[in-house]
Amino acid sequence: MIHLDSVVDATIINSDNYSIVFRIDDNIEDYLIVEKIDTTLKISLQGDKTYSKITNEVNLTLPDIEVLIVEGVFKANLSGFSFSHDVEFDIKGIIMLNANIDTGHIDLQVDGTSSILLSGNGTTADILVNGTTTADLSDFETTNTSVNIDGTSTVILRVNGTLSGSVKGVSKLYYSVNTILENINSD
């Protein structure tokens, strides 16, 4: 599991090798926290400080990812991952995530004011979006998808099978022509 918290610009790339490279302002270097707890790598900034106009970049390379948690004010790019197991993205805050991934099932949970751009393939997907988010998955094809949207969000899907779920608030759901609608509830 990768857990990224606070103000960070992250690039996560598939590789046979593990590496972490930081580019950070020297005046905040003492506040950078890197922890490995069991199977979780957590990278964050000390929470009792205020940060603005800083450079805090991390480049990660790793062979696999199953869970990505991103919190705070963040820009993250993820690319090159292809596997058959499930993957979970938990996004909270003001996040800009651009990911290219081929996977089995994807569980995408977004809460906050985010912009999600996802490309690749997944067999199935569970998508939960709350807040003011744009989640563009028009280049991420799934067979079956469940989606629950609340707030003022927009979700764009490419489903080549069944789509179920709910749309609440003033949210919008767009989906591909080949989608079979099954139990879509709205306010």
Molecular structure report:
The protein has no helices and 15 strands. The protein is mostly beta strands and 187 residues long. It has a single domain, classed as Pectate Lyase C-like, CATH 2.160.20.120. The chain has a 15-stranded mixed beta sheet that branches. A hairpin with a 2-residue loop joins strand 4 and strand 5 (40-45). The protein is globular and about 55 Å long. It starts with a strand and ends with a strand. The model has no long low-confidence stretch (mean pLDDT 91).
Secondary-structure map with pairings?
Layout lengths: L1 E4 L2 E7 L4 E6 L7 E6 L2 E6 L10 E7 L4 E16 L4 E26 L2 E17 L2 E9 L1 E8 L2 E6 L2 E6 L4 E4 L4 E7 L1
Parallel strand pairs: 1-5, 1-7, 2-6, 2-7, 7-8, 8-9, 9-10, 9-11, 10-12, 11-13, 12-14, 13-15
Antiparallel strand pairs: 3-6, 4-5
| DSSP, total strands | 15
The gross shape turns out to be globular
Oligomeric state of the chains present here: single chain
Level-2 CATH architecture: 3 Solenoid
Task: Give the integer mean of the pLDDT values.
Answer: 91
Radius of gyration: 17 Å
The major pleated sheet works out as: 15 strands, mixed
Proportion of residues in helical segments: under 10%
Class of secondary structure makeup: mainly beta
Which CATH C-level class is it?
Mainly Beta
The unreliable regions are none
Overall number of structural domains: 1
Number of helices: 0
CATH topology name, in short, is Pectate Lyase C-like
